[in-house]
Specification:
The chain is mainly alpha-helical and 130 residues long. It has one domain. Helices cover 80% and strands 0% of the residues. The protein is built from four helices and no strands. Helix 1 crosses helix 3 and helix 2 runs antiparallel to helix 4. The longest helix has 43 residues. Keywords: Membrane, Transmembrane, Transmembrane helix.
């Protein structure tokens, strides 16, 4: 179980790392307008949250053999992963993927909410200063 969770986490974090880099680059490109950079970062992070949430809801109904985790498991085939080839094993893997996707979605929602809150505070300070 721990190996499956670890592989699922690595696969999800690899994709999220690339997405976070893209969001950070967009925000850096908008550095001349900090509130716009924060607002766009919050909106893009919220879109990532929505995508993770949708993937987590869809994961139990999809065949996990199409996932990145399955490909990595095939590379480790000699380490006791043969039981996952059965229907019950695939259901177990799908449940773990759904759980880990939802865990990452929760953390992404916190980041999006934090960026949104900072943006709102920035707009409030800007309105007070005017």
């Amino acid at each position: 179980m721990d190996t499956l969770r670890t592989l699922a986490d690595h696969s999800i974090r690899r994709v999220l790392g690339a997405i976070a880099l893209a969001i950070a680059l967009v925000m850096a490109g908008l550095a001349a307008r900090p509130l716009l950079a924060l607002q766009s970062g919050a909106l893009m992070t919220a879109a990532v949250w929505l995508g993770l949430w949708g993937a987590a809801l869809r994961a139990p109904y999809q065949d996990p053999r199409q996932s990145l985790v399955w490909r990595r498991l095939n590379a480790m085939a000699g380490q006791g992963m043969r039981h996952l080839r059965s229907l019950e094993g695939r259901r177990q893997l799908a449940a773990i993927l759904a759980e880990r996707l939802m865990w990452h979605a929760d953390r992404t929602a916190l980041v999006a909410a934090g960026l949104g809150l900072i943006t709102l505070l920035g707009f409030a300070i800007q309105l007070i200063a005017e």
